[in-house]
Amino acid sequence: MLVVEFYGVLQQVAGTRSMELETPQSEQLTVGQALELLHERVPGLSEHLPRVACAQAENLVRRDQIVDTHRPLVLLPPVSGGWRGGNGLDD
Amino acid sequence: MAWMTDEPLLLDQLLQETADDTCGALVVFAGTVRDHHEGRGVSGMSYSAYKPMADKVLQDLEQETLERFPVEQCRIMHRIGDLAIGEASVLVVVRSHHRADAFDAARYAIDTLKVRLPVWKHDEYTDGSRAYQDGVPLQTPDSER
Asked: Cβ atoms within 10 A of the Cβ of B43, count?
């Protein structure tokens, strides 16, 4: 079992702040594999997942890293207020 | 010290924290909530954050700014929660011996914050609708190298 937490627009898309994800007990799971399981559970996340960063506690985790199933996997959508194409900085 | 807060940002507090008689330059950047976004009227904004990471990002960014630029003081605070038009959402305070370094460092700090800080803006529009602003995928010091 893995707890997945959503932030920003992902909360709207998933319809919740967090959910429990069934994971295979016998194998270690990478972040990427966890996201695939999540996609099967919430297909509406498909267009967002390629741009999502993942974290556990205060650290970002890469998609090839093994998930610590004792901690929530936190999904962080693109952060707002950054670059705006060729127009330079927003505020 | 605080970095992320749901209380109004107090510039006087940061000026006191960074007081330094060796410095002849003080640069303050304040980001404020504006009343429009991409042609639509905005009546307010709600900021949310992944706080466990956000506090660390700002703390690390202050230290990084002090190491990259010849500046003596750097403090950054960011607000979360519901903000009205005109309220400050972020403050960057930099002090240095001379002005050019303080300008450069403050610019670096706010530009870097914009791509590293896990914060999201939820606009409330004047027509009553609400929407999250799109942004840029989160970056880390490692991913920028």
From this structure: 15
> Which ipTM score applies to this complex?
0.87
- Provide, as residue numbers in chain B, all residues whose Cβ is less than 8 Å from the Cβ of A52: 137
Domain boundaries, chain A: 2-76
Fold of B1-6+30-122: Aldehyde Oxidoreductase; domain 3 (3.90.1170)
Domain A2-76 has CATH 1.10.10.10: no
Closest CB from A51, A79, A90 relative to B118? A79
Nearest CB to A79 within list B32, B52, B115: B115
Residue B110 CA from chain centroid, whole number: 6
The values of phi and psi at residue B138, to 5°, are -60, 135
pTM of the predicted model, to two decimals? 0.91
Model pLDDT for residues A10-62, shown as the tens digit of each residue: 999 999 999 999 988 777 999 999 999 999 999 999 999 999 999 999 999 99
Residue recorded with tokens 């303050």: B28
For A55, the closest chain B residue by CA position comes to B53
